[in-house]
Design a protein that fits this description.
mainly alpha; about 0% strand; Serine Threonine Protein Phosphatase 5, Tetratricopeptide repeat; about 75% helix
Protein backbone atom coordinates (compact mmCIF):
# COMPACT_ATOMS: atom_id res chain seq x y z
CA UNK A 1 0.00 0.00 0.00
CA UNK A 2 2.75 2.44 0.94
CA UNK A 3 4.66 1.79 -2.27
CA UNK A 4 1.53 2.33 -4.36
CA UNK A 5 0.73 5.60 -2.63
CA UNK A 6 4.26 6.89 -3.15
CA UNK A 7 4.31 5.74 -6.79
CA UNK A 8 1.16 7.72 -7.45
CA UNK A 9 2.65 10.79 -5.74
CA UNK A 10 0.36 10.62 -2.72
CA UNK A 11 3.06 11.21 -0.10
CA UNK A 12 0.77 12.69 2.51
CA UNK A 13 -1.55 9.68 2.27
CA UNK A 14 1.42 7.33 2.55
CA UNK A 15 2.66 9.11 5.66
CA UNK A 16 -0.82 9.04 7.18
CA UNK A 17 -1.05 5.31 6.50
CA UNK A 18 2.35 4.82 8.11
CA UNK A 19 1.22 6.75 11.20
CA UNK A 20 -2.03 4.78 11.32
CA UNK A 21 -0.09 1.50 11.12
CA UNK A 22 1.88 2.49 14.20
CA UNK A 23 -1.24 3.64 16.03
CA UNK A 24 -2.82 0.19 15.65
CA UNK A 25 0.36 -1.51 16.87
CA UNK A 26 2.06 -2.50 13.63
CA UNK A 27 5.77 -2.08 14.26
CA UNK A 28 7.68 -0.89 11.17
CA UNK A 29 10.51 -3.12 10.04
CA UNK A 30 13.46 -2.56 7.73
CA UNK A 31 11.31 -3.04 4.61
CA UNK A 32 8.72 -0.51 5.77
CA UNK A 33 11.37 2.11 6.48
CA UNK A 34 13.05 1.41 3.13
CA UNK A 35 9.77 1.95 1.28
CA UNK A 36 9.22 5.21 3.16
CA UNK A 37 12.74 6.42 2.51
CA UNK A 38 12.62 5.52 -1.17
CA UNK A 39 9.16 7.04 -1.63
CA UNK A 40 10.15 10.29 0.03
CA UNK A 41 13.34 10.55 -2.02
CA UNK A 42 11.65 9.78 -5.33
CA UNK A 43 8.98 12.40 -4.59
CA UNK A 44 11.60 15.08 -3.80
CA UNK A 45 10.96 15.14 -0.05
CA UNK A 46 14.65 14.84 0.66
CA UNK A 47 14.73 16.70 3.97
CA UNK A 48 11.93 14.47 5.28
CA UNK A 49 13.81 11.40 4.02
CA UNK A 50 16.96 12.51 5.84
CA UNK A 51 14.96 13.12 9.01
CA UNK A 52 13.52 9.61 8.76
CA UNK A 53 16.97 8.15 8.16
CA UNK A 54 18.41 9.93 11.20
CA UNK A 55 15.41 8.92 13.32
CA UNK A 56 15.95 5.27 12.40
CA UNK A 57 19.64 5.68 13.22
CA UNK A 58 18.97 7.42 16.57
CA UNK A 59 16.48 4.78 17.62
CA UNK A 60 19.08 2.08 17.15
CA UNK A 61 17.16 0.33 14.41
CA UNK A 62 19.18 -1.62 11.92
CA UNK A 63 20.33 0.45 9.01
CA UNK A 64 21.64 -1.53 6.10
CA UNK A 65 23.29 -0.91 2.79
CA UNK A 66 19.91 -0.73 0.99
CA UNK A 67 18.89 2.36 2.97
CA UNK A 68 22.27 3.95 2.30
CA UNK A 69 21.91 3.10 -1.40
CA UNK A 70 18.58 4.91 -1.55
CA UNK A 71 20.15 8.09 -0.17
CA UNK A 72 23.37 7.80 -2.19
CA UNK A 73 21.31 7.40 -5.36
CA UNK A 74 19.25 10.46 -4.44
CA UNK A 75 22.31 12.60 -3.79
CA UNK A 76 24.02 11.38 -6.97
CA UNK A 77 21.02 12.55 -8.97
CA UNK A 78 21.01 15.82 -7.01
CA UNK A 79 24.74 16.36 -7.72
CA UNK A 80 25.56 16.59 -4.00
CA UNK A 81 29.03 15.09 -4.09
CA UNK A 82 30.03 15.87 -0.50
CA UNK A 83 26.85 14.37 0.94
CA UNK A 84 27.10 11.16 -1.06
CA UNK A 85 30.79 10.82 -0.16
CA UNK A 86 29.95 11.23 3.52
CA UNK A 87 27.24 8.58 3.32
CA UNK A 88 29.56 6.22 1.46
CA UNK A 89 32.38 6.62 3.96
CA UNK A 90 29.91 6.30 6.85
CA UNK A 91 29.09 2.74 5.78
CA UNK A 92 32.23 1.25 7.27
CA UNK A 93 31.78 3.06 10.58
CA UNK A 94 28.38 1.34 10.83
CA UNK A 95 29.90 -2.06 10.11
CA UNK A 96 28.34 -2.15 6.66
CA UNK A 97 30.00 -2.90 3.34
CA UNK A 98 29.15 -1.31 0.01
CA UNK A 99 27.65 -3.72 -2.51
CA UNK A 100 28.04 -3.61 -6.30
CA UNK A 101 25.10 -1.22 -6.61
CA UNK A 102 26.64 1.16 -4.04
CA UNK A 103 29.98 1.22 -5.85
CA UNK A 104 28.31 1.63 -9.24
CA UNK A 105 26.24 4.62 -8.08
CA UNK A 106 29.32 6.27 -6.60
CA UNK A 107 31.37 5.61 -9.75
CA UNK A 108 28.58 7.05 -11.89
CA UNK A 109 28.32 10.14 -9.69
CA UNK A 110 32.08 10.69 -9.86
CA UNK A 111 32.10 10.27 -13.65
CA UNK A 112 29.27 12.78 -14.00
CA UNK A 113 31.35 15.24 -11.97
CA UNK A 114 34.32 14.58 -14.33
CA UNK A 115 36.30 13.01 -11.48
CA UNK A 116 37.47 10.14 -13.66
CA UNK A 117 40.65 9.40 -11.74
CA UNK A 118 38.70 9.09 -8.50
CA UNK A 119 36.10 6.92 -10.25
CA UNK A 120 38.87 4.62 -11.50
CA UNK A 121 40.35 4.38 -8.00
CA UNK A 122 36.97 3.45 -6.60
CA UNK A 123 36.52 0.83 -9.32
CA UNK A 124 39.86 -0.74 -8.35
CA UNK A 125 38.90 -0.59 -4.66
CA UNK A 126 35.62 -2.30 -5.52
CA UNK A 127 37.42 -5.20 -7.16
CA UNK A 128 39.96 -5.41 -4.32
CA UNK A 129 37.14 -5.68 -1.80
CA UNK A 130 35.79 -8.73 -3.61
CA UNK A 131 32.84 -6.98 -5.26
CA UNK A 132 32.87 -7.97 -8.91
CA UNK A 133 31.51 -5.39 -11.34
CA UNK A 134 28.31 -6.25 -13.17
CA UNK A 135 27.04 -5.12 -16.57
CA UNK A 136 25.62 -1.92 -15.07
CA UNK A 137 29.04 -1.07 -13.62
CA UNK A 138 30.77 -1.63 -16.96
CA UNK A 139 28.13 0.39 -18.84
CA UNK A 140 28.59 3.21 -16.33
CA UNK A 141 32.32 3.28 -16.95
CA UNK A 142 31.94 3.12 -20.70
Amino acid sequence: MLEGLFQSGRCRDAQELFNEMQTVGIIPNFRTYSVLLDGLCKNCHISEALSLFHMVERNGLDLNVVMYNILIDTFCKDKKLDTKRALFSNLSSKGLHPNVKTYTMMIQGLCEECLLHEAKELFVKMEQSGRLPDDVTYNTII
